[in-house]
Amino acid sequence: SYILAQxxxxxxxxxxxxxxxxxxxxxxxxxxxxxxxxxxQAPELVVSNGSDRPYGIPDRFYGSKSGNTATLxxxxxxxxxxxxxxxxxxxxxxxxxxxxxxxxxxLTAL
Amino acid sequence: xxxxxxxxxxxxxxxxxxxxxxxxxGFTFSSYWMSWVRQAPGKGLEWVATIxxxxxxxxxxDSVKGRFTLSKDNAKNSVYLQMNNLRGEDTAVYxxxxxxxxxxxxxxxxxxxxxxxxxx
Lengths: 110, 120
Hints:
The complex is a heterodimer of chains A (110) and B (120).
Chain A: E1 9-12, E2 18-23, E3 33-37, E4 44-47, E5 61-66, E6 69-74, E7 83-92, E8 97-101, E9 105-109
Parallel strand pairs in A: 1-9
Antiparallel strand pairs in A: 2-6, 3-4, 3-7, 5-6, 7-8, 7-9
Chain B: E1 3-7, E2 10-12, E3 18-25, E4 34-39, E5 45-51, E6 58-60, E7 68-73, E8 78-83, E9 92-98, E10 114-118
Parallel strand pairs in B: 2-10
Antiparallel strand pairs in B: 1-3, 3-8, 4-5, 4-9, 5-6, 7-8, 9-10
């Protein structure tokens, strides 16, 4: 099993920068993906493989990682960014595949 | 438009069975892995299962091994999750997603989910 630790909540004022952390053993060596889940909606990929953004996700969303921490940085936070954000990694080899999620961070725009 | 749509959820008694379906459209279904993730009420996300493009490889979280079976029908652009011997802890919204959560196929998009309630 691989544990991903996320703070339960982060609050920032609109227009400021939010930094959401995701801690895991040597996570910098792994591909990290980030999803957001707005209230009452399905999760949505916002950053993949560390720093790639799907079509439609603005460049205000940026992923990075170093050592045991991955970070999703959201600049110029808007009210519409309020959501729970989950980090995710996978463990894959020739005979197994396992997917791990962090517990999620609730982002609030004060 | 690329999309996946789940169906088949409902209320089932402990020990019962349910078959979830996921219909895909807008992309070459046979070229993609497909996955299921669930979310218990008020909780976070839990990966459930993933199936390879041609259905030849299937992977499950330990808690559902031997009870859940994933299958893929590329002719019908659909993936199915057969759930047997259901338990209360299987109660959740089940999401279908295109991809295998890594490599060149991160999970996107996700469907809106189908709710499964296991209760007597």
